[in-house]
Design goal:
The chain is an alpha/beta fold. It contains 17 helices and 19 strands. Strands 1, 2, 7, 8, 9, 10, 16 and 17 form an 8-stranded mixed β-sheet that branches. A 7-stranded mixed β-sheet has the order 5-4-12-13-14-11-15. It has a two-stranded antiparallel sheet with strand order 3-6. A hairpin with a 2-residue loop joins strand 8 and strand 9.
């Protein structure tokens, strides 16, 4: 066991994403000596563009967050869409109540993460970018620090916040490589259009924003979906597809991305835009089943490294869950330091803490969502059925109109879906959502 005087820091946080920086900031606010190690040249340099950030947790951590942070737009319109090769069915939901208090914003991580790192430094966190952690230091069955090259740095507690492929967790032997059905690959472009075109094309005013969640032909039948959301003067757009289904169907994620952007319902949104950024990254997709083995003596796993990402079909959440898990970890780690107890038994209070908040409760509520989203019919037949019913309603071809029920029955017959199968999918949706 390391002697008290041999500790270089109270806490070492590995990973300068939102989870790592929020955890480091909160601990520094409590007067703890915190080192934040980030492999990139600066926080945010390895992150792809950004996303929709459900930000009320950040308003609690950073009062006046929306006004001070470099956010892009405030999301007041949410569109759920079924995309078919020749049709596009939208549920377009706008609500002024989502603007006050602000429910969600879009962020570009290359701008947002440096701001968050600055907040950490102001709180007293030692931010060390450009450093790759090679391994953990273990003594007497407890993790007491990290090695980076020839350097050893010791701490009472190490926090693994190093992303979905968490090397730290795997090195510790507590989390094996995730199976591919728990992972997805996201391919994203950021396309600059200018503020005026953003407002005109997406029917927005002021700093309002829109977010689209799309399923169907955007992934050509591969499990996953498309997304499109507005930044201040650009659009972030792309696809997220399950790794296992992508391999099984022999598709290319970059080809699916290009196919989506060229769809006749999508192309007009981005016509004439300039490509600013393009890339891909892994995404946690397993939901609650990824929350296991998150604590060892002297070690806590948070954020994406702990699988705190949630795709409900309506929303895709990661950043708010990362911040929430970081807040839970910081609270328990601070209490552990006060108690002088860094054992696994004590640090497992972190699990109780996040389970008592929206983080654990939402992961439990949507625990069945990943299984529901594995229904192949969601990526073709369901959307085509909806479009066929609506075509029958709106296609006034001078033949006599039919009541909706027989119209829907004929559309169901043409789709190849059996009523029993559709009912089962419906019941799964009710239970999952």
């Amino acid at each position: 066991m390391a002697e008290e005087e041999n500790y270089d820091f109270d806490v070492i946080v590995v990973g300068g994403g939102i989870a790592g920086m929020v955890c480091a900031y909160l601990l520094a606010q409590e007067g703890r000596e915190v080192l934040l190690i980030e492999r990139g040249v600066e926080p945010g340099s390895k992150n792809l563009s950004g996303g929709v950030f459900y930000c009320r947790v950040m308003e609690e951590i950073f009062p006046n967050f929306v006004e001070e942070a470099p956010v892009e737009r405030r999301i007041t319109r949410n569109c759920l869409s079924f995309m078919n090769p020749g049709s596009f069915v939208n549920v377009d939901y706008w609500d002024s109540r989502l603007a006050d208090p602000v429910n969600a914003v879009t962020v570009l991580r290359a701008k947002f993460d440096p701001w968050l790192a600055e907040k950490c430094e102001e709180a007293g966190v030692a931010v060390m970018p450009g450093i790759k952690v090679d391994e953990l230091i273990s003594e007497d069955g407890r993790f007491v620090g990290v090695r980076a090259g020839d350097d050893e740095l010791r701490a009472r507690v190490v926090v693994a916040a190093d992303g979905v492929n968490s090397f730290i967790s795997r090195y510790a032997g507590i989390r094996a490589k995730e199976p591919t059905n728990n992972l997805a690959v996201g391919v994203k472009s950021v396309i600059q259009l200018g503020e005026e075109k953003i407002r005109d094309r997406f029917n927005l005013t002021g700093d309002e924003g829109a977010a689209y969640a799309i399923v169907g032909d955007c992934t050509e039948g591969v499990g996953g979906g498309g997304f499109m959301y507005t930044n201040k003067d650009s659009v972030s757009i792309g696809v997220v597809v399950r790794l296992d289904d992508l391999a099984a169907k022999g598709k290319s994620s970059s080809d699916l991305h290009d196919h989506f952007l060229s769809h006749p319902a999508i192309a007009p949104f981005i016509e004439g835009g300039e490509l600013l950024e393009y890339g891909c990254h892994l995404v946690a997709e397993g939901g609650q089943r990824m929350q296991h083995d998150l604590v060892r003596s002297g070690l806590v796993v948070i954020g994406d490294a702990a699988g705190f990402t949630l795709n409900t079909g309506f929303t895709v959440r990661g950043m708010d869950l990362a911040a929430g898990s970081a807040r839970a970890a910081a609270k328990v780690i601070n209490e552990a330091i006060e108690a002088g107890d860094y054992s696994q038994e004590y640090l497992e209070r972190y699990i109780d803490e996040y389970n008592s908040t929206y983080v654990g409760k939402d992961m439990a509520t949507y625990a069945k969502a990943p299984d529901f989203l594995e229904n192949e019919e969601m990526y073709g037949q369901v959307g085509e059925l909806v479009a066929e019913v609506l075509f029958g309603v709106y296609n006034l071809d001078l033949t006599p109109r039919r009541h909706l029920v027989p119209l829907a029955k004929d559309a169901l017959k043409q789709s190849g879906l059996k009523i029993r199968r559709l009912a089962k999918i419906g019941m799964q949706a009710v239970r999952a959502m």
